Amino acid sequence: ETGVTQTPRHLVMGMTNKKSLKCEQHLGHNAMYWYKQSAKKPLELMFVYNFKEQTENNSVPSRFSPECPNSSHLFLHLHTLQPEDSALYLCASSQEGPGHKDVSYGYTFGSGTRLTVV
Amino acid sequence: AQSVTQLDSQVPVFEEAPVELRCNYSSSVSVYLFWYVQYPNQGLQLLLKYLSGSTLVKGINGFEAEFNKSQTSFHLRKPSVHISDTAEYFCAVEGGNKLTFGTGTQLKVEL
């Protein structure tokens, strides 16, 4: 399997539930990202992991908890979400490092998880 | 800090007509520029990128974009669109290892 794979594709959860989104990349990249895509708004960068270390957290509420056990896997743990958290959550990966942009192809995105909080 | 502006939220066009999707950016550092396409219920797919060199960049599916530094623009063009080009298109700028997206332009190709 190639590219970036996200599971599940669709998720409906209650505000008191706990669930996790999974992302797996088969590209040998060393950086992974979580983005939130809401209607009529720009994609919002949530978290960045570089070499498994979190390098950015864009003021994301603590009800979202990322985990990166290795450079190929990225999780987003969800608990006590709000209806306004309903969105498409996209995972991406890239190869970061000196000169990478001349040989890489930008960020590679997964197909996303459509999350609905009820 | 950097930002991306896509002035047109929707662009309707007839099949086989040319189209231009506008993108302007601002940044305090040198940037790389990208266009992504998102088909319904799918993730983002890279169309083309500008890193350096020739200001006219050709991408997949017959799209091209021109980097204009003086006007801080990176408009996307296609001389003849097809029904299958109906999708949302996102312009993005990367500077300082951070990728910032515009709000997207919905291209709707009609018969």
Keywords:
heterodimer, A: 118 residues, mainly beta, 11 strands, B: 111 residues, 4-stranded antiparallel beta sheet, 12 strands, 57% strand
Strand content of chain A: over 45%
Percent range for β-strand residues of chain B: over 45%
Count of DSSP-assigned helices of chain B: 0
| SSE arrangement of chain B, N to C | EEEEEEEEEEEE
User: Could you describe the largest sheet of chain A, including whether it forms a barrel?
Assistant: 7 strands, mixed
Query: How far apart, in Å, are the first and last alpha carbons of chain B?
Result: 41 Å
pLDDT averaged residue by residue of chain A: 87
Estimate percent helicity of chain A. under 10%
The backbone outline of chain B, from C-alpha atoms, is: globular
Give me the secondary-structure category of chain A: mainly beta
Number of E-type strands of chain B: 12
What's the end-to-end separation of chain A, in Å?
33 Å
* Largest interface between protein chains, with number of residues from each side: A-B, 23 and 22 residues
The largest sheet of chain B, given as strand count, sense and whether it forms a barrel, is: 6 strands, mixed
Oligomer: heterodimer
Give me the secondary-structure category of chain B: mainly beta
Task: Evaluate the radius of gyration of chain B.
Answer: 13 Å
What portion of residues of chain B is helical? under 10%
